[in-house]
Amino acid sequence: MSVWPFEIVARTERSSRMLFVVPVLTVVLTVICATIMFTVTGNDAGTALYSIFVEPFLDAYGISEVLIKASPLIIIAQGLAIGFRARVWNIGAEGQLTIGAIFASLIPIYWVDQPFSLMLPSMIVAAGLGGVAWAAIAALLRTRFNASEIIVTLMLNQIAAQVLLYVINGPLKDPRGFSFPQSVSFPPEALYPLIVEGGLLRVNYSIILTLALSAVAWVFVAHSFSGYRLHVGGVAPAAARYAGFSANRAVWLSLLIGGACAGLAGVGEIAGPIGRLQPILSPGYGFAAIIVAFLGALTPIGIVLAGFFMAVIYVGTDGAVLSAGIPSSAPMVLQGLILVFYLMAYTLVNYQLRRKPGRMRA
Amino acid sequence: MTNTLIFILAGAFSTATPLLLAAMGELVAEKSGVINLSIEGMMALGAAIAFMIAYQSGSHALGFLGGGLASVALSLIFSTLVLVLNANQVASGLAVGILGLGLSAFLARSFESLTIISLEKLDIPILTALPLIGPVAFHQDVVVYLGLGLAVALASFMSKTRGGLILRVVGEDPHIAHSLGFKVLRTRFLAISFGAAMAGLAGAYASTVLTPLWSDGMIIGRGWIALALVVFGTWRVFRILLGAYMFGLALLADLAVQSLGIRIPSQLLTSAPYVMTIIVLTVVSKDALRIKLNAPISLGENYKPSK
Amino acid sequence: MKNLLKSVTAALLIGLSTPALADDPLKIGFIIPNAIGQIGWDYELNRGLDVMKEHFGDKIEVTAVDSVGEGPDATRVMTRLVAQGTNVLFLGSFGHMNDGLALAKQNPGLAVIHAGGYMNDTNFATYAVRHYEGAYLAGMAAGYATKDGQLGIVAAFPLPEVLGIMNSYVLGAQSVNPGLKDVKVIWLNSWYDPARERASTESLIAEGSDVIFSLFPGTTSTVATAEEKGVYVVATLSDITPVAPTKHLAGIQANFGPIYINLVQSILDHTFEGKDTFAGIKDGAVEIASLSPDLTADQKAAILAKQEEIRAGSFAPFTGPITDNTGAEVVAAGASLDDGAIKSMAFIVKGIDTTLPN
User: What ipTM was estimated for this complex?
Assistant: First the structure.
């Protein structure tokens, strides 16, 4: 340690120039690593990188897919960030998404032959309640028994996955589905309408809901006293108590908002691209959203941008498997690299490297 | 029936071993105040590298070595993020975990579904011949015994040595540790590296001994179980050891249930370790004093050397 | 407001390309759900693809992609293939069915060919293989090879297809070995769990099974474990000699190639229909493979003779009288089950010791 002549110190002010540098640095580092990787696997690095970073923007289809992918990431991350700012670590969005989806699915499964016009809105409410209920377990155990919400929400993720497997192998299984573990397909009334009907574009109105909620989050954080108190409660618990805001309320509020948002992401999937209940609802959105929240610097606008960025990467790397022939296992490596590089670059915003002040004994 | 019972009681030693190894590693990291959520990814990378090496060289020992080293290499990224750059531990752990899972699938992609021969089970004179206990406890592979031995060694390291004391002080309060002259970051670095090495060995055991084959995604949540185990064992080595065996049994309980013809949803049995962990955590956390004795106070918080 | 929003977004998304009908070659997209190993489902799909490529040469142009399981990302891969002008889409996972159907509806010019589905549409065809025919033959081999009359089965989910294979296997074993004990079964309740497969296999062996049947598990774990423990092993889908070089007893080899060739030829001839193909030994889609050298020449001859009977149509595995494990007669003497009954099978034949999970 002592040989190293530099130290990392907190910046007193956020560098706005750095907010621009971070994504650029991330992309540059990733491109370097990806080029090495593709050269090793014998693919044309240029074609692959073009597929990843450019192709998603080239046509309506790519943009539509990016919107679909971004929606759950953004909505979950907005909910989580409110908690993270208050230092409440909800790692359980994946489970809250699952339980929210199961709650929502009860409506179209029960009334599959009698669909009604308010089916989708009632599903959205049910999904929010499901996510809230699952998150409330963690909030209760944390506030009443002091049990770490990190561990409890992690465990609840695993349990939720088993609950889903149970219901689609049992009570919610499609009776005419030859025993395959999945529910009936939902009626059209239970699905988000497509923004552009009758084509390949799958993007639906859930992205509008997501963006609207992001705006609400922005107002909540920037302009409301509750948002301020939540933030203070995280940064300085004593000051928050002085301001009349208990730590327990922060825990409850954070987890319930996070759970509700994850539940909404769940209904966005089953009432969107999936259209029924099945064993796999989310390719890890709950975990990816944690990182999106951090990439977005825990700010509502940052999260929207980070969510779109991550969505481009997901869609682009999937596309590169087809158009550049990279191994199907490569996208996950690239996604991992981007997350790592982003976290590294992000610290540059808050910290700077500078030469250690001279000391007598090095 | 007796055969099935013996098989399950004995088999739990094997299914427990990767959980125990990974959990002991995570215990050390957490004791130093660092929560490492990348165990699943580190186990996967360890499993992939260990299998590739064992397949090519025919040597399990080399496989274990490679698996452990690969995980340590991956953990350097995690250490850099949380110790040098002060990035959030939760986000860093998840990011590195995703990278580890990706790398395992990528590097071992041409080894998909290949198989090797497992390690032999050792017979111990006299002991193996004992009724019931013999075939259950004294007919295991060498890594099972090494794991048990490591648990004993780790327990005495934690409670009896100066190194263990430093580890605990750093985890309790890094600022006090610093003022006492202990090197906080160096301690945490070593703890993370040890944790990663153990996760790598756990993965190596999974892919070269427990199920001697490579298949993408084969760790399927065992890393999360290991994380649960640390909490379930309330940060105490011997309770973790006991918990590992119980969780190992839980993974096999489905077989016993089926052979008895009892109809219990397999999902209920699979959830059992996670539910038990939540219950244990709730009970021990309720008594703030009791958890304080074991749980590292500064867990999850970075230490920024000031001034 | 809503309309305004709609038109603005629509304007943003202009540029939608509908799939162009290319003249030649036929553009084929081929989706395989998992990584391709050396035996098993994904390997066989890929082998079938190779046979098809070999057969049609430059008349077709194939884009194949593996490790695309079910879920929203699978849909993206399918949709992208269609957007790139794919004419024929092969889907390799049951979980791809609903998205495939939706795509077929949206794109009347597209032909979708799905493995294992139970729904059809004018341009959505399905195919399945009569594994149960081969299972009967493999069951005969197991009946011959077992010393203690105790067979064990490691099976994935109790789906109708799995029950059909299991029943046929046990009927085959009973037909040559009257001393057979009740067959033991362990359900994995999972498509993928190599550690549970291994434990299940070891457990069956500990309980005395001397022939293990690996019925659709997701990995090579069951076969490899039996080989390691020195117990005969039978498996669905592939020749298992590479994984069990000494203890392979029989493999129920599936050949998807002939099915693919027929379907693609019908597309080239403009006679393609969205119906189900249920192909068996007669069609070259199933055969008995990797028969153990430990079987006597007479035993092998009996098995191969039975294969020829099935090929010729003079024998069908589900020919009565068949009794289920509650003692009820499910197929009357002299009658045979039709394809509909085989595809929705929900009973277990007498002589199998299991309760269905859930």
Answer: 0.89
